[in-house]
Amino acid sequence: MSDRYGDFVQSSIGKKVAKNLGLPMPTTLDRFESGERLVRGSVLVGRATGDDKSVSESVARILSDVHAEVYVNSSDDIKDALADAGVEAKANTGGDDQFKVLLFDASNISNAEQLKELYEFFHTVARRVEKSGRVVVVGRTPENITDIETAMAQRSLEGFVKSVGKEFKRGITAQLIYVEEGAEQNLDSTLRFFTSARSAYVSGQVVRVSKGSSVDVDWNQPLGGKTMLVTGASRGIGEAIARVLAREGAHVICLDVPQQQADLQKVASEISGSALTVDITSEDAGAEIADAAQKRGGLDSIIHNAGVTRDKTLAKMDEKKWNMVIDINLGSIARLNRYLLDNDVLKENARIVCVSSISGIAGNMGQTNYATSKAGVIGLVNATAKQLEDNAKGMTINAVAPGFIETQMTEAIPFAIREAGRRMNSMSQGGLPVDVAETIAWFASPASGGLNGNTVRVCGQSLLGA
Ligand code: NAD
Known about the structure:
- This protein has helices at residues 4-8, 12-21, 54-65, 78-84, 116-123, 148-167, 188-195, 236-247, 261-270, 285-294, 319-342, 359-362, 368-390, 408-411, 415-423, 433-444, and strands spanning 42-47, 69-72, 90-91, 99-105, 129-139, 173-179, 205-209, 227-231, 251-256, 274-277, 299-304, 346-355, 396-402, 455-458.
- By secondary structure, it is an alpha/beta fold.
């Protein structure tokens, strides 16, 4: 899909025109390429003062594992944790050095006054982050904290991170990870995702990492040996999901309606996966999926991506449009999950990932049916997450909520509304299907056992519903 304005501002004349008129200046975002280093530059890492070193120790171990070039401020006591993990950190001398990643362990911040340590760490380097840079703050889950001042200070981190996401521009993203005490070893997959080019269009997000069981993976092929099913895989976002999961080592069962058979077959054969033509609203959809899955020993993951829009204002919407959207986008997911769980089609440590939408968070003109269905998906994820926590099989469920993604669906939107959707976010551009797919691959990883019940927006920090 083409973004002519985005291409224009990359030219020297386009840059001048946009600057003089104060128009948005979208940056070409870094995106992941197979075989590349996880972090494409150096990392400045810091830590708020306090006794608890468990987050820093995990951060240090991960940095040593990914062989990142690490800098610290001279006053910082994270140096010890880094040294213990075998990382030789250089000193940030305050010169012109640029950083790809600013990473701050804020887990010890316990009152309003101590929030100043955030200011002190970020203020001096705010202009020294490279294009497509990453800001990551790690804190403690406020809901689990009983001390009022500590809970308050930890909750404050959200406002800081979301503002940084809006301020830094140039494709720089900002995220907050709340890690439960005792779950620090589960930070790996999330830190790797948020510091790399895989999270190109994810910004201003808050993720909760809890104690669920994560499985060790080969980080070059984290989905190796896994069987994963993607609904709506013949085109658009679903096709991108199937391709990324296959790139990461999974065998992908690509599912779509019979009318899409030719395109579906093409995608499946290009990624050495298999094709399954099923309408997910049909009565025997669960049984057909179960059959296909059992041939491969069960499912390690199901990605509920298939979805439709049938937009009309409520007064003009006929019952058929309402029923169809609710059934495909929501009812079928609830039915399939129930069937797959009841019939043990999903294996231990299975990952369920649902595709919601920021329309389900913000609501949208002409989309009462769609927004109802997509808000319902978030409700389904929250309720199922609690159930999975109790069943002790290590399964998780999470959702992604895409914003404006360049697909056939958004190409059909009238020009003015399309331009508004495309620009009204911190990246000043639409995302690509691959951005949603990378986020899903992170949730689908066996190493993401600490992620359960999260909804992460892939929307470039859209102003809608923010
Ligand atoms: P798309 O229309 O290009 O693809 C949807 C796929 O789902 C199609 O291949 C279609 O055949 C399949 N499908 C529809 N009904 C089905 C059924 N009953 N059984 C099996 N398959 C069925 O759409 P897309 O833009 O790739 O969107 C994919 C998902 O992302 C949807 O859930 C959509 O709501 C969501 N989403 C998209 C955007 C965006 O900007 N494109 C934004 C937010 C959310």
